[in-house]
Amino acid sequence: MQKLFNKNAVTGWLMISPLAVVLFFFLVLPIVMIAVVSFWRATEFSIIPAFDLENYEFLFGSPVTYTVFVNTFKYAILTWIFTSVIGFTVAYYLAFHIRTQTWQIALFLLCTIPFWTSNIIRMISWIPFLGRNGLANSTLISWGVIDEPLEWLLFSDFSVVLAFVHLYTLFMVVPIFNTMMRIDKSLIEAARDAGASGAQILWNVILPLTKPGIMIGTIFVVTLVMGDFFTVRIMSGSQSANVGRLISNDISLLQYPSASATAIVLLLTVLITIGVLLRFVDIRKEL
Amino acid sequence: MSRYTKRNGLSRRTLLKTGVAAATGTLAAPMVWAQSNIVLRQAGTGVSAFNEIAAKALEDLDITLEMTALDSDSVTQRVATQPDSFDIADIEYWICKKVWPTGNLQAMDTSKIANYDKIAGTFRSGKLTPTSEIAQGTAPHTVGFVAGKDSREFVQEESGWMTLIPTIYNADTLGIRPDLIGRPISKWSELLNPEFKGKASILDISSIGIMDMAMVVESMGEYKYPDKGNMTREEIDLTLGIFTEAKKNGQFRAFWKSFDESVNLMASGEVVIQSMWSPAITAVRSQGIPCVYQPLEEGYRSWGGGMGLAASLEGAKLDAAYEYINWYLSGWVGGFLMRQGYYSAVPETSKLFMSEDEWGFWYEGKESMGDIVSPSGAILEGPGAVRDGGSFIDRMGAVACWNSVMDENQYMVRKWNEFIAA
Fold first, then answer.
1. 205-234 in chain A: CB under 8 A from chain B
2. B288 and B205, same structural domain?
3. Inter-CA distances, B408 with B124, B216, B236, B404, Å
4. B14 touching A, CB under 8 A?
5. Are B307 and B233 members of one domain?
6. Which of A142, A162, A178, B396 has the fewest CB atoms nearer than 10 Å to its CB?
7. Is the complex ipTM more than 0.85?
8. Is residue B19 predicted with pLDDT exceeding 50?
9. How many domains does chain B have?
10. Are A254 and B77 within 8 A, CB to CB?
11. Host domain of residue B383
């Protein structure tokens, strides 16, 4: 018995070791490296190993940091609201209104079609559409809805959030759809038999049971938006900044230590955010 | 990968030992590298990375050029941090000032450059004509020479060791859409004119953008800089303060970082006045959209590009690099680039590869007699057109400042980040 147990433990260790090794070299080590470099000093073209808090002092001392973090959270929250509403609606329709599995699969695949192109192309194609003389403005003018082209359609927070929502809604749809498909249909029948209305079923039965899916989608969307720099640069016409852009600016100016410090602070922020989110829902139930 | 290159390099050197005498003696005549099949990796700003040049180099010299086009910041980063990732760095003079002290580039022996004496005076003595004034900023000749091959200190005279061989340069100004503005523009200060609220743009490359800003601030009469190319902290605060206020008032539609972004902003009519580069104007015009590279009273902001050799180049590859540079200056490339609206470092030789009408239009500022055609074959101008700003001497003679790196560069960059985030 004892032997068998040991043997199991050994196999267990062996089985996780490939993943552990990969994660150690490609995740843990780089992050440790970034943390180390964040204490180094930099001049114009060289970085000097040191233990120096200057990068963090500058980061926390600069008003730009706070504006930029607020901006990052603003984009994350707005994108989260829109993607979760749209994602939930789409998943609900697919899971409960489409009766045959064939159609469910077909329509689900339809949702993924935009993802067959590069997300940079999907994002950039908004620019001619939303521009001052773009399709959106000229259509609205020809309908007589507006007289002057709307300036805020492009190179604004609106266009940034729009692009994010477009890019990341599927990351909400998939996990929510997945949890909804696992809901035992007899629960809904039981609720119906007990006299619950459609809205009550949605609110008291379906929503609580899809929470893990929503949470997984939320983690995807929030981390993707908080780590992004390119969408913000392109869609705001370089006029707004989020943390990712701060880091990318630092990197392009060879300020690696300062970029590392910002990256560490961003990493901690995202981890705390996810930690808080996980307090609300136990996603292990999902897995 | 790098191990491979090294091994190849070694074996090539031993192979070439027999042919070394032939290889060193006759630099002026084009050689064929067929046996060695030399590949030169050229990293540079997009402005000069043309496939046509690579194709012609392969044809004339049998040297394969692998071109990588990056934005100015990325090139700087590449040269400073990845010295083995390129053989030839095609950079600007202000970048040279930044990266030269890293020791990743080696100086060139000017006695091996056949057309050295014909290189425009701007890059040697700093004076275009004997009487011209030296503009503010990082003028090319101030970072153009070092004392010896591996020296890291710039010297102010023609020492025989050149840091960069000038390739192309130009005088930049504001680009405008005359059809959407409908009145003459003659001053830099128009960029912040409230008339163009929400329709202006400036480039988001700090070392160039700050110079455009300085031109605007001087033109507005807000301040007169002792040296625009080397501002004090107070001057940086003042300059960016004025622009931050304009940004908050919604003066700018967008900022651009790459060449094609500037073309799209202008061609789509999102922007009617902005900092721009000459070939971007050409690109807008070749879409049939009117666009003028407006000469302004206060003069031009100029820039110059050049090719530097990686410190690691040696043996046959180094010889091939010299060969390539000599070919670059020998005229065909110059003619090609002049048709884009740039100037070549050795104008004389470019003339041989341009028609009289092209030379008259692009270089002498004369009225065109026939169609002026871009290298890609698009008709840019019909007969009777005159280049914006006139002749070479008129334009390069009116340079007010050069793109530069300041002593307070790090402070400026931080302030620039604040401006973008504001």
1. 233
2. yes
3. 27, 20, 9, 11
4. no
5. no
6. A142
7. no
8. no
9. 3
10. yes
11. 355-388
